[in-house]
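#help-structures
NK: newbie question, is this the right format to request a structure? protein is RNA polymerase sigma factor
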Amino acid sequence: MSDHIVVSAELTLESLYGAHHGWLKNWLTRKLQSSFDADDVAQDTFLRVMAGDSLQAIRDQKSFLCTIAKRVMIDLFRRNALEKAYLELLAQRPEAFMPSPEIRQCQLETLQQIDQMIDGLSNKTRQAFLLSQLENLTYSDIALRLNVSVSSVKKYMAKATEHCLLFRLEHGL
């Protein structure tokens, strides 16, 4: 009986893909002005659909797919901006201090994971966390910089720490 349910869900996913992949890829190509990026975003969109909950809950398939595709595009833009900033920073280093391509890729992947991890934090919490971790500021200094109390900074840091730990657990990091 459960095999029948799985087959039914797979057929629904197949029909969703068959009915909408073409227009989604065309829409993405117009938005991104790149057939290559459109292929990747369309594929990632359907991977997210596959990883999601029940397909039966989808009311408007095109709107649903567009919403997911927009989120995937945002992730792509963020990854590209992060990679560009990283490569610009590397370009300022003397050749003798350039990391190997393998190390550069590892560092870039780590930066992307950190970016994903802190993305879910509120603005003040993210600022407090980054000031603490990147600039090594004390809670008092952070409070002055953010114009909040030290107890607020402690709350922000507790939230950030909890968020980061949960992210690491969920993503096996």
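mod (FA): yep, format's fine, and the tokens are attached above. Confidence is low (pLDDT under 50) at residues 1-11.
NK: thank you!
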